[in-house]
Amino acid sequence: QLHLPSNICSLNVRAELDFWKLPEDLICECCWMNYHQGLKTMGVVNTICKAFHSLYDDPRARAALSWAGKIWLTLDRPSYNWFSKVSLKQCQLS
Known about the structure:
- This protein has 94 residues and is mainly α.
- The chain has two domains: 57 residues, no CATH class; 36 residues, no CATH class.
- It is built from four helices and no strands.
- The longest helix has 29 residues.
- The chain is elongated and about 75 Å long.
- The termini are far apart.
């Protein structure tokens, strides 16, 4: 039986098991939940990362994000560009 501390990364444990060609069945039942939950969490993280990378790979989506960022900066930071400065002066005069 193999007992695992709760602070050890599940991916590292899996890599070690693969390296030594040991089956996951050696992990004790009391440690299995932490090990499995860590792998599941990393699966979710990888899915989210892939979604963001595919979003940035699409030129149209990248352009939309770029415009959204510029609009946000224009509204949030008065010194960002010419339009921001004019809008700030307009608000101050009103």
